[in-house]
Amino acid sequence: xxxxxxxxxxxxxxxxxxxxxxxxxxxxxxxxxxxxxxxxxxxxxxxxxxxxxxxxxxxxxxxxxxxxxxxxxxxxxxxxxxxxxxxxxxxxxxxxxxxxxxxxxxxxxxxxxxxxxxxxxxxxxxxxxxxxxxxxxxxxxxxxxxxxxxxxxxxxxxxxxxxxxxxxxxxxxxxxxxxxxxxxxxxxxxxxxxxxxxxxxxxxxxxxxxxxxxxxxxxxxxxxxxxxxxxxxxxxxxxxxx
Length: 242
Ligand code: PEP
Prior knowledge:
Number of helices: 10
CATH topology: TIM Barrel
Number of strands: 8
Strand content: 15-25%
Bound molecules: phosphoenolpyruvate
Mean pLDDT: 97
Order of helices and strands: EHEHEHEHHEHHEHEHEH
CATH architecture: Alpha-Beta Barrel
Radius of gyration: 17 Å
């Protein structure tokens, strides 16, 4: 399992040090069966790296460029993230797909760049509330899988994050998560991809619902937003996962 904490656009430098140090203090004496990874804002990646290096906590980025180098002001590329100790990067988070108009093709290119530089993309997919209500969720996710995931033998992770569950306090029923995971697993099998690819769930995860979520049959871990800023609750979830 992977427990991933997406800090989004939060923390100043001192808060980034405090948050990563607290999580490290809570977890470094524990034998964890799950991997834990922190996803700070890009500008604090090196800061957090210096706190968690040589520990049982891994580092990831929240996004990367569709490009490797060149005239792309403001972008940060996969090899740059690699230089700073990132093992993972999230790509295709709904806050970027919707807020920044990122297409499936963009997500595909980002994931491919990360794979080319031996990093592990966490490729997010998720339906909006309207698609869920109309019964289109499975088809919407299937299209995102088809168009966002490089058909490759390289390691990658899929994060299923229903958009209506992110930051809303609502989570899907376990039956509907299991139904979605079954479809994703079947899609991976039909496309001859490895059967150990992890599928994470994300959206309003907290200590209260984590235990229930861990009973999902094919759960490969959790992608946690808001609660990852609370070192005590985040660490407790990491310990429950183990
Ligand atoms: C996220 O943004 O990936 C997320 C899951 O957020 P939250 O846990 O706050 O719903």
